[in-house]
Specification:
Layout: E1 3-6, E2 12-16, E3 22-25, E4 30-35, E5 38-41, E6 46-51, E7 54-57, E8 62-65, H1 111-119
Antiparallel strand pairs: 1-2, 2-3, 3-4, 4-5, 5-6, 6-7, 7-8
């Protein structure tokens, strides 16, 4: 079963596929994946962390949530378009140093922008 990721405004932005790691946008584009607790783009860029249902940027600030972790009401999910074939994953870059603790403040990047960084080369 897919798991929806919502941004800080409760808007559904992307979803984690049933494999528990691949992340797609609603138009079916693969943009990122979860490896251990780290979030990487298909281009190999380290984007942040996925911890306990929350997406954190590389500075440890919240960028997105699964439904039961969202601090705001969530909007209805749109219809998913068919998934596009995923390109080969690029070599993962060395992750940023993980902050000693994650922050409850919001990232300066919207979740959708953070994930798009993983789709571009």
């Amino acid at each position: 079963m897919d798991t929806t990721l919502f941004n800080r405004d409760g808007k559904p932005v992307a979803y984690i596929a049933e494999d528990g790691e691949s992340i797609y946008t609603w138009d079916g584009r693969p943009v990122a994946y979860i490896y251990q607790d780290k979030l990487y783009g298909w281009n190999g860029r380290h984007l942040g962390w996925f911890q306990d249902g929350t997406v954190f940027d590389i500075f440890g600030y919240r960028a997105g949530f699964v439904k039961n972790k969202s601090p705001v009401p969530v909007q209805l999910e749109p219809v998913k378009l068919p998934r596009q074939p995923a390109p080969p994953r690029q070599n993962r870059q060395e992750p940023a140093v993980k902050p000693p603790s994650m922050h409850y403040g919001y990232s300066s990047k919207l979740l959708e922008d953070l994930l798009e960084r993983g789709a571009s080369t």
